[in-house]
Each structure stands twice: as C-alpha cells, then as structure tokens.
Design goal:
- By secondary structure, the chain is of the alpha+beta class.
- Helices cover 29% and strands 19% of the residues.
- It is built from seven helices and twelve strands.
- A four-stranded mixed sheet has the order 1-10-9-8.
- Helix 2 packs across helix 5.
C-alpha cells in the first residue's frame, strides 16, 4: 500500500512539472554569481575581457598570428596600464592562443584562483598544468582544431545595469560566475562582443560592494619589571675582587669622589 501511494505521488509530481512547462512557466535557473572581492575581479575580469577581445580580433581580421597585447588594447577606450607588457601577455602554444595576466604577489585572489583553477580553466602556461601560484595566470582565448578551424572560448557577455552600464560582465564557461572588468571596450567592440557572445541570462549585472576588510586585533603585551641583577660584587666596594667560576678578577682600585 505504501509503495503504491509513493508511486502515485511521484507520477503526480512529474505531471505537475510537465504542466508548468507546457504553460510556459519557467523553472528558475541557477542565479548569476558576481564575486565581490576586488582582487579576484581584477584578475578574472581582465583575463575575460582580453579573451573576448582576442575573439573579436580573430573573427574581425582573420589574422593568422596571435595578437599582441598592443593589438588587443586597440579594442579598449583607454590604454591598459603604464607598462602593459609587464601586466599582460599573449602566447601561441599547444594549438591555442592564450592571454595571461600577472597576479600580484600578495593578492587575496591567489587562494581563490588556485582552488578554482580547474573549474575556471586557469593554467600555468609554462607547465601546461592548472595554475598553482605562478607570476602569471593564463586562459585560452582561441583553440585551433586539427582541421584548421578555430573555436573561441565560450564566454558569455552581458551589459551592466543601472550606474554600471558602462561595464561589461563576462562569464566563466560552464559556470554561473560573471566577472566585470575595468577595461572598457570601444563602442564598436562593445557592440560586436554583445552581438557575438551576448547572454540571455538576467542579472542584475552590477558591481557589488567590496566586502569589509577584517580589522586587525591589537593587544598590548604585558609589561614586567625586569628582575634585579648585578655583574659585580654585592657590596659597594668597587675594588673588591670579582669571582666568576674558578677565576678571580681583581679590578683596579678606583678612587671615590666626595659627594
């Protein structure tokens, strides 16, 4: 009897879900996640923005050579940084075009990137293994098949909402994570990126406030009066001999002044 009731309840649930789908009621999808830590965004947002720029370069010019950092910067409204080649790199290796970004040595992002390297497709290009803490972290922008065809990284792009409309948000392939970048595309590049890789996911796509920094707890060390000690004789006679083990020192007598 119990098994029969469970069977009826299971079939009823399946039928109800089917009816919702037929009526056009969508089952809620996994919510978009936008990381609040600015250190993580600095790395992932820049990598994603340049990986999409690499696709625009490849599909717009049909270039056969991996674009340089300067060529990718042409898709941005402002220069990358004062010394872009010290912060960014591109490379053609292992049948793919790669974009790399320096990870600050003491960045809070390091632990996150290391723990999620496989999920987010982050590599140490020199060892072709998932990133474990090198100076640069790498992401594939374009992958070339053996027939010569090229496949761009499946990064979805969304425009910012409200006060953050100037930014673009970039997904990590296969996840619900999105990253925003301070690298602002030119109007033409922005339009092309949304046309080629625009997402239908709903946000809101806004820059979240940075989490408050943990306050350092300061506590005063206890203060103790140092114990009394002496390296001379206990008497006031400075001319008295000083014994140290089996050795006896006879200091030169010093005349005392009259106080």
């Amino acid at each position: 009897m119990l098994c029969h009731m469970r069977y009826i309840m299971k079939n009823t649930l399946i039928a109800a879900l089917g009816a919702l789908l037929l009526c056009g009621v969508a089952v809620p999808a996994e919510a978009v996640v936008i990381e609040a830590d600015p250190d993580i965004q600095l790395v992932m947002g820049d990598l994603s923005a340049l990986a999409v720029a690499m696709r625009l370069h490849r599909e717009g010019t049909r270039g056969t050579a991996c674009p340089s950092v300067e060529q990718l910067a042409a898709y941005l409204e402002a220069p990358l940084y004062a010394s872009p080649n010290e912060e960014f790199r591109t490379a053609d290796a292992d049948g793919a075009w790669w974009v790399g970004r320096r990870v600050p040595e003491y960045s809070r992002a390091r632990a996150f990137l290391r723990a999620n390297a496989e999920l987010l497709g982050l590599y140490d290009r020199e060892s072709t293994s998932f990133w474990m803490g090198g100076a640069f972290v790498w992401m594939r922008g374009i992958t070339f098949e053996h027939e010569g065809s090229a496949t761009a990284a499946d990064i979805r792009v969304a425009p910012g909402d409200g006060k953050d409309v100037q930014y673009l948000f970039f997904s990590s392939p296969g996840t619900n994570r999105y990253w925003w970048s301070r690298l602002i595309y030119t109007p033409a590049a922005r339009k092309a990126a949304l046309e080629k890789s625009g997402t239908k996911e709903s946000g809101p796509f806004v820059v979240p406030p940075a989490p408050p920094s943990a306050k350092e707890k300061l506590s005063a060390s206890p203060v103790f009066v140092p114990p009394e000690f002496s390296v001379g004789p206990e008497s006031d006679d400075l001319s008295a001999p000083l014994e140290m083990g089996d050795v006896i020192f006879n200091p030169i007598p010093r005349p005392r002044g009259n106080n």
